[in-house]
Amino acid sequence: AVCGGLVELLARLFYVGMMNAAQWLARDFNLDDWGGNAEGIGWRVLEMIHVVTRGMLLWIDAFESLALFGIFALLFYSVTTETALVKRELARKRSTAT
User: Fold this and answer.
1) Phi, psi dihedral angles at 89 (to 5 degrees)
2) Is 48 left (phi over 0), alpha (psi -120 to 50) or beta?
3) Predicted local confidence at residue 98, as pLDDT
């Protein structure tokens, strides 16, 4: 669970850093006339970076959900098998005590 939290923290920090860099590019550079042609290529590239960043976060969140499901499934299995084992052990002790 700690590793999942650290991965989530790193992913969000990367996202904040990328968004700050995108704001800096949009504010300080002329993206309308980027590379000598006035076709708005700079804005298109910035939008592509934004889409890729959001996609990366989506995949990270999906992996975290699957990992959390796996952890909970193992925990459920562990608790249910231990409970059955304890019940058998108690039943054996009761039968030998009488």
Assistant:
1) -65, -40
2) alpha
3) 62
